[in-house]
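An example makes the point: we let one protein speak, the chain in one-letter code, the fold tokenised, and here it is:
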Amino acid sequence: MASQSESQATAVQNVLQATQGDTAEVKLEALSKIPPPSGGTTDRLWMLLVFIFGVLLILGLFAIYRLIEAKIDAAALIGVFTTVLAGLLGLFAPSPLKSGK
């Protein structure tokens, strides 16, 4: 039995093959009929993204600590660290599109 992601991948390939000679609008309309990924798939992708940002955050803190301990200028690394932190915090900010304003 094929998993949902495999069946969706097959459906996308079949739609693209069936609409090979058609315009981009026809292809987009046909692809829009394929259901989106399940909640489990998007949850796993979300958790993976948050985990990666968390690891980068911890590694950045450790690297900054080691550079300060060695009395080396850590300005560039602090810039990277704050960018990763802002990205991680941005994942939890509410979307302005969902607020309806």
Observations:
- Residues 95 and 101 are 11 Å apart (CA to CA).
